User: Fold ABC transport system ATP-binding protein from Actinomadura algeriensis.
Amino acid sequence: MSEPTAEPMVEVRDLVRTYRTGRVEVPALRGASLTVAPAEFVAITGRSGAGKTTLLNLIGGLDAPDGGTVRVGGRDVGALPEDYLLALRRDVIGFVFQSHGLLPVLSAAENVEVPLRLTRTPPAERDERVRVLLGLVGLADHAAQRPHELSGGQRQRVAVARALANRPRLLLADEPTGQLDSETAAALMPLLRAIVASEGVTVVVATHDRTLLGEADRVLHLEDGAITEVPAAAGDAPPVS
Assistant:
């Protein structure tokens, strides 16, 4: 007898999202579908304006679709009341954006600590979690530094640590290397791969950077509002810009 298949961490079916500006309708997603398994690392590529950010926002419950369904951890995101949706974003999903969004008056450790304070994590447990996460992203020696004292790559690593603070099951990263130089960017994706291994987190990342796609278990291409899987051979990858 075969073992039962684990429930998908993310399941998107026939997703439709259209933006309206005055009388003009701009379709972002036209029946997009995808499934992501627990602890899988999936990269989504596609030209600018293809709808990658829209897709991540819908998966993360930051936006609502015009049609189709999004399920995260078996829960229909679109059917959740607002308080449950807030809990989903706080406890189940971590977000990393192109701009790190750190609080400038707080140190690296204090920025990572913010989500733990919001959940009233006991101080000793909070301090230990911050210590572990800064170590994970290679910034144990920079805990007391404020964002302006860190490089762009270091700030983005702090943002990754902060996103992991409450032990999310799903990490959504939207162009996390978009503002980094190529060398710094190349170091971030192996970090995300290490996080999948050490924390068991499912990662869905939108990226333009071809050099980073090799870290993913699968690469999906978003074009004309629909998603296709990219063949494993790098030479078969469609253009991303």
Observations:
- Strands lie at 10-21, 24-36, 41-45, 67-72, 75-76, 93-96, 170-174, 202-206, 218-223, 226-229.
- Residues 38-65+80-236 form a domain with the Rossmann fold fold (CATH 3.40.50.300).
- The first strand starts at residue 10 and ends at 21.
- Helices lie at 52-59, 82-91, 108-118, 123-136, 152-163, 182-199.
